[in-house]
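**Paired protein data**
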Amino acid sequence: MKLRHRECQELLKERFGEALLEDELLSKHTSFKIGGPADWFLPARSILELLDAIKIARACNANHLILGGGSNILVGDNGVRELVIKNECDGYLVDGETIAAETGMTLDRLVDISQDLSLSGLEFAAGIWGTVGGAVCGNAGAFGGSISDILTRAVICADDDQVKCVDRRYFNFQYRHSCLKDSGDLVMTASFKLKRGDSSEIKGKIKEHRNIRAGKHPVDLPSAGSFFKNFKDPNIGGNLTAAGWYLEQVGAHEFLMGDAAVFPKHANIFINYGNATACDVVALAAELKKRVFARFGLSLQMEVRAVGDFGPCRELLNSILI
């Protein structure tokens, strides 16, 4: 089913011309290299384009999805029956020890910028896939740090189209979560308060973190990053525990569904050997979740976001989302 209102299509075409694409394969825009076509696909390369696109979609009451780097997402094989707006805005401003970045910028590029400026605080993010916007939405973190530690304010377009500046409290940050996952708000820029530091120390820490991630994460194989959330295990005092450990105990590395498999160096990362489908990934995740529950009585929760039409494996996907 195409966008609900032909008027919306006409407005988008009038505003964006040939930049508006029809039936664009989303496998081309996700790190997993999986996903069917979007009815309409629009790359937004400036904040003004991003605002115009979302305001047109909202005015027409048209379903729409904001896509960043596509690194923490699984798109259904039948695609997405809506407008997909890809945020490619990547400008930034520096004010003393604060960097304000547009949210289409990759997080790793922001890390490089902070290094060039001898500003410390973003070293934990070195090597994390995705964009600044996705990092804020999911409160990305590693090595004991997270986005919520350094974000001070952001400019958002609220679900009523009002553009406003908010502080970090607005996001109600939790572990790998913010209110953005449930609201219709769009973050356009995010400001991060860093600290002046020693350039060589910053560079060394960034290199160390990237080397560690390269040793545990796929570099040349398509993936969506950690598939299940880490969680607090009540059986060991409620301490935060890596989901990968439980997956290893149930033999995760032995599993292969079509071209979807568990990465040999990290049991909580699934990889695409070339022709994996979304349903292959769902089948793999469902089997592993079932085995962890059977052995430990614990229900793993997806960290990767599932969107679109999953066709014949929708029911199986729903069993994972419970």
